[in-house]
Amino acid sequence: MGALCLFVGLFLFIKKDIFKLFILHLFMSLAIPYNDYIYYILGVQLSGIKVNNILMLLILILIFKQLYAKRFNIRVSKIDILMIFFFMVVCLYFFVGYYNKNPYLWFDMKAFVFFFLNYIIFRSVVNNENYIKVINVIFISSLFYSVVVIYIYLFMKDYLPFIYGDKLFLWWGNRVTFSNVSMCLITIPLSIYCLLQNNYSNIKKFYFFLVFSLNLIAVLLSQTRIVIMMSTFNSIIVLVMSIYYSIFNFKKINIKKAYRIVIFIVFIWISLSIFYFLDIISGAEILNNVINRFSEGQETLNVRDVSNEMAKEEIIRNIWGYGLGKEAILYNTNYSINNVGPFIDNILFTLGLKIGLLGMLMFLILLLVLFRKLLLYRSSLVIAIYISFVLMTAIFNAQIIYSVPIVLIFILFICISKINREKLLKNLGNTA
What we know:
By secondary structure, the protein is mainly α. The protein folds into two domains: 1-73, no CATH class; 74-299 and 341-430, no CATH class. The protein is built from 20 helices and four strands. The chain has helices at 2-15, 18-31, 36-42, 51-68, 78-100, 105-125, 131-155, 160-164, 166-172, 184-195, 202-222, 225-247, 255-282, 286-295, 299-317, 347-375, 380-395, 399-402, 404-416, 421-427, and strands at residues 45-46, 49-50, 328-331, 337-341. A hairpin with a 2-residue loop joins strand 1 (45-46) and strand 2.
């Protein structure tokens, strides 16, 4: 698969087709579970180099060639200026980490290089004319990802210790989860939104229903409580919006739309009931495992709280930061050390340790500025999706910097924040 994608990428590079090359890079990064073993099995890692990184470099070469030829006209925004300052801070703290001989310096450097290079790519490629096609890639990628996850659950459960490694397998057990699953926070509610619109053919409706169904199964297989709760909340927002704006809009009840919403809710309820029954009969107990995850104690959250508290104390002791590559410690509830790694499950405290209070505040400001821009959409759905995405990937995790698929989706949020509200909501249905 990797050789084929690389061949296609080189062909597009020779044709100088930046957008299609970008789409290929985006699809590979989002659709394939973010895991070295999976990359190896699928052959998308050649001689230790990921094919999507090669594609990224090819895109950058074409971009810089066009910039040199003055074919790009990019207006610098406030977020761009903030990103430039953030980049300068990260560069400074690379040398601090190098001076301190921090153990995860090269790991952090690769993560931030990927972040900033892809920011350049997205800002150069994504625009008002093609953003719908980019959103459609997320739908298709989530579909492919869900199929891979289901396949792993059905036929490769015995390989999970090799896929995760001993430490993660001890934590996760038979859960089939990768950071890509956070993508479903976006695709599940958006697929429901598109299903409830009027201007779709039956093929498009089937397509969105397939996205919704397989994404839902992938989320359940992940047993990730935050993703399940936030996806459910976002879906409820969609249904409430549909009822309020469509059924009772202009004091005139749309019987057809009301019928479609009721049928959708009843169908989901019946489908989950049948799935639960078959789940018990087959002995898989997927839903039962999910329910047990919610009935467990608050140990996971307590571990996060303790780790965050200890990180906060370390930041207070040195508000200037320890440099890139600084180790982050995951503590048990009794304050004993559980694991040492490049980050903990909170990006703000992770950044505070590495690039100090200033860097942490700069990234927080970036999140808030983006939130303010999305508020201008006056769309409960857009705001709910963004809040749930940030909570999952930045507050309860550090995926927003350290996970390839999540980094790309976050940068896409920045690009979409520049799209006209009416145009976005009007064209959202044309993603298939």
